[in-house]
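Table 4 source record.
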Amino acid sequence: MDSYEIERYLNIRSAYGTSFGPDGDRLSFLMNTTGTAQLWTLEEAQSWPEQRTFYDEQVSFASWSPERPELIFGMDEGGNERAQLFKLDAETGEIVNLTAKPDAKHRWGGWSHDGERFAFASNRRDESVFDLYVQQRDESGDDATLVYEGDGWLSLSGWSPDDSRLLVSQAYSNFDQDLYVLDLAADDPGLEHLTPHEGDVRYQSASWAPDGEGIYLATDEGSADTLYLGYLDLDTGDLDTVADGNGWNVGGIALDDETARFVFSRNVEGYTELTVGEFDEHDPTAFETFPEPDLPGGISGGVSFDPDAERFALSTTGDTVNTNVFVVDLETGETERWTSAPTAGIPTETFDESELVHVESFDELEVPGFFTLPDGHEAGDGEANDDGVPVIVDIHGGPESQRRPSFSSVKQYFTDRGYAYFEPNVRGSAGYGADYAALDDVEKRMDSVADIEACVEWLQDHPAVDPDRIVAKGGSYGGFMVLAALTEYPDLWAAGIDIVGIANFVTFLENTGDWRRELREAEYGSLAEDREFLEKISPTNNIEHIDAPLFVLHGANDPRVPVGEAEQIAEKAAEQGVPVRKLIFDDEGHGFSKLENRIEAYSAIAEFLDEHV
């Protein structure tokens, strides 16, 4: 069978980000049919959807009003992440810019239950911190009411059931947060601290209990290595365990605060396990469960309840399953696919499935990863690597992120072209406990790069792999990992692909968005105390070791990893005589959201690999 072109694969669509309308008769979702994610609605399963927004920029989320046929959605410009909030009248199609502050970020905080107000966090007063605002649905711009001046990374987790209070989160790092309550009815609103603690403790995915007297949350308080589902009593301050993760992270809870019905997930080796149930009205830690829905793909999320909490919608995906929206009957677990995001005419049976593997690293640590062989090559095929396939080692960003077996059109394109794909979750990755995630902090940073070396050695011993044709690819922090792997272990690589990657930690921290610097220093080390170490491990300062051809891609508007990182690594590598290609997109930020740019980027990557691998 002939291979399909990259345009076909990048035209495989995804439907996600679902929200039920106030009457339960309409469902909104995001889908990238036009090349960027836009807002769509439909009225029943598999019916013809109606496109509601028509922008060149991608829509980041959408949320229905609980009372009216209107939605609020978010959108930035050119990938600059300075999202604005817009209101769409679902009857007339009229769209109004509610925030109209293009120089500021706006982070959604939810509708009030009566649909009269909404809340958000924004850095419009001071770029380095987030304040909290409440705004009437008919107001815009400066009409928003500043209800609390923040001094850090604040976000909102929703309105209390009586709309008198807001649940507030403050993040110090990905593994250390605090929760607060803001009483909007007080004469001088201030934050009530709910989670005083010492050291790093996670308090995440918080939701109000139906009676407003407690909070459900995912936490590792009490020295737990992984997240469990807890209930925090606001009167006593007691934190009780509702459901243990049994060695894996509870990923948070979606809760209907009128019926006490809920869905929470566990992340088990990258796969989703859902628990569906209803809390006891007399005991907030007791609940009955309903059948787990049978969903394709193995990874699900983004739950939205209908008004009566008799059904919920969510998106689901997997290695061989492109993302679509399903609706689940809560009590029976019966599922119905609502959207039909197309696969661009590519038969789904041609998609390749990954295998979960574990690689022993230099210190006997087991590093998990997902290994995908192209069709026709099974584990054990080949003799002593003769006629083996080339491999792309695709390293995730974060670093506190996790590669999961979700659908990737890019991965399927390259496996169709005869490449194997290896996606490691090296030390520092999320999903495997706090201890695992901390194994790469600051001075231990290069241990995670050594994990990549161990993975490549494992691949070199694999009978289906050509050990001389192994490629490093990664984006953002994964781009740093590519550059570090190429400079630390130059003999292992046939080529490197650096997408919006960090090339020098000092220049990155100096130039990243003011609102992000403190959070990133908590992971990488601070400019004040760790500058010498950060300089030492930066790929630009070890460029003399690089040997493999390098392709650097970046967005000119990137607010996270400024484009100067790409400029300096490409220049320094070229000075070493390394074959270097550089591709900068003027209308993109931290990644590539526009279809035409994605086609250009991955076509160029394929040509680069054809030439060098």
